[in-house]
Design goal:
The chain is of the alpha/beta class and 911 residues long. The strands form seven sheets. An eight-stranded mixed sheet has the order 1-2-3-4-5-6-8-7, sandwiched between helices. Strands 15-14-17-16-18-19-20 form a seven-stranded mixed sheet, with helices on both faces. Helix 14 crosses helix 18 (630-648).
Amino acid sequence: MADVTADDHPSPGPVYPAAWEADVVLHDGSTTHVRPLRPDDADALQAFHVAQSERSTYMRFFAPLERLPERDLARLVNVDQVDRVALVAVSSGAEPQDVDQIIGVARYDRIGTDEAEVAFNIADAHQGRGLGSVLLEHLAAAARERGVRRFVAEVLPQNGRMIGVFKDAGYEVRQRTEDGIVAVGFDIDPTDRSLAVMADREHRAEARSMRDLLHASSVVVVGPGVDAGETLAGRLAARVLADLLVGDPSVLVHAVGVPGDSALPMHAELADVPGPVELAVVAVPSADAADVVRALARLGVHGVVLLTAGFAEEGPGGLDRQRALLRVAHGAGMRVVGPGSYGILSARAGGLQLNASLAASPPPTGRIGLFCQSAPLSVALLAAVRRRGIGLSQFVSAGHRADVSGNDLMQFWADDVDTDVVGLYLESLGNPRKFSRVARRLSLLKPVIVVTAGRSGQVVPPGHAVRPTHAPPRTLAEMLRQSGVVRVENTHQMLDVAQVLAHQPLPAGRRTAILASSASVAALVAEAVAAAGLVVSGHVQLLPEDASPERVSAAVDELYGDPDSDVVVVVRIPTVGGPDTVLQEAVARTAARSGRTTVACIYDLHGLTPELTATDDDGREWTVPAYSTPEDAALALGHAARYAQWRDGDRGRPLHPEGVETRAARRLVAGWLEAEASGDAVLALSPERTSELLGTAGVSVLPSYRVHDADEAVAAADRIGWPVAIKTTVPALRHRADLGGVRLDVADETELRADVEQVLALAAGHEHGDVDAPLEVQAMAPHGSACVVRSVEDPLFGPIISFGLAGDASDLLGDIAYGVPPLTDVDVAELVRTARAAPRLFGYRGLPALDVAALEDLIARVAVLADDLPELRSLELNPVVVSEHGAVVLGARAAVSRADRADATRRLSRV
């Protein structure tokens, strides 16, 4: 996304590419700002050069150079941002009037049509932080946008670090040595390896930044002033200070401007606080927040938890304050949790906690990590966690999610050995494509349970910076399904599922055994089990209320001894009397020793209880979670079983269909847009251009010929060869043989003339739209099922692929399956099979099975093209006729515009 507008940095000459500005996380977990070099950076660039060591200068310029000559300096800072592009990494000054300090420079100069010479220079004091790899990623992205596809460089042999940056980026680097100079070259189009390298670096950097926050050993609390006890900011600061002081005693706590009585000595100013300090918790009016954060930079603070609100949710003025705050924080290397955060909790050894939150009575420590956004919802969520006795490894409330998001926490939890299960309450999704990528990686390691605000997940609370979306609500559901996350309806269900996943083994299957106190209860439980997607194994044990202890033990042993069951549901609701301690002990003990996933609905027990806790033969403690209703227990168990099945399944391989040349596609589209489209205008492609574009992906469209009357139709049929199909171009009847708009197997001239007359008459009563001829003549394709394949570039989700069978199934009933690239071959197979009408492709009612493999290959090609070509605004293949031997595209429409995709790697939000 364009993080700033061009008006933020007006400059004469070339148009300033504001969309290239980005705040990024470095290898050490700190942040910096990357932006295009500007003419007014001359003094900063000279200062950067002068501060470099003699060795660094020699490596860059192949000669000693104490200062840049004025002529060279002018040439370096005046670039056209097309053929000569330069990016700089900058840090903010300690004072508002300070100019940016350049800490890294990357540039390219075009030397051919799609080739450019690249050069880097990183400040000596900042080497080893990953600046080189970050600048290479962003410079390569800018170059691809300008049509450059290959970088070359000349490097001194002793500059192994720079050669390593190129190789470590995952590109296929070729090098040769001539006259003591190493010449390197590499294509910069993304590959599986380069994308994996970037994702891994992003993961390690963002995980490190979260680890610095959650493992902080020193904290400073900054309030609005000791006399502001009656203000909301004052009360927030006093509350979090009190919570910190009763938490982990090893955490060093400082306080500045916090109202109330505290045994902790109060510093008069931030300048009086001895550094370094790792974490700051800030509760000050929004107008003062940026200045406070700037002052914190002196202390080496890694992250800021901002409790107060008053930013983007208040309109343009608040958005400006939020942007200023993030600019200061990221320029000083800090992450921001908030604004409007409830705070953070982090478990420490011995049951202690870092409680930098507003929770006076936090939940106990445990092995579940929770992420929430707004503070009010955090209150309710933590209260429910406490009532159930659930223990947390970490809890983070991101507030309005200006910076730190659920993606950052997922990156951390992927490596955190103290977290077994992750729960996310998401009020908004700022970058769904990145979420999908990160969540999929995490879900392969540990369960991720997600609640979204509203069923569509498209609710955008005030203050949340989220792009608009035109995607149907089902898009989010399909994206989450692809990612392997467990999506639930509300926080109650999230905690239900978290209990079983954190305190029971993963289910080995869906076969369910039931223990109930009566036949009627067993029947209700069996219905709930089936509704949750489980299968009743047939082993139902009835245990009356007055059963003896011996009979209870025997029944439990028999239930768990059934080899045809994978999971167990225990329901015990006595009509008189109290809890059955014998049953509780027997179920807890046998479940732990058998390793069979168990849930229970037992009177007077809820959540995680000592009564249902036991150890296995290895001494590990397991707890059977207790639920209020059998339906809750079965639903949680069903979610757990589906997750286990997904994790054990084949997730497939990246798509690489033969003959897909996306570089050629980009050249075509760039030429068309340059010649015929201005700004963000959408260019509808002609049938000929659409066919040419699809040809770069190895997709052929059966030629068709536009005609006006019967004579032209007969002439076209003679050229094509009989039999033919005749079709109307009227939108309402197009592709609709059932409505008379398409006539097939037209064998001769007489039949064709009659069909032309009838189709024209039928179309006369309909709106013709913007078409240049009323009819199309096309060769006959093999008989089969007609399908529709589409791709749409959404502002929020990026490319969305959809598939359905043509006709009323998709047009009226909405029987359409969705996928969000990048897809694997397994994703494509599931996409085809998700449509409810898909059985028609697999030998429905005795008909021959169709060539689904050819259909999947076609969808794969469309998915790769859409993923690699963000300029492809829309594409429709309709109809695609799938026969017993192949899939033929009979019609195609496409539109393109300039790229505006928002999922750049390692880019932080700045709004």
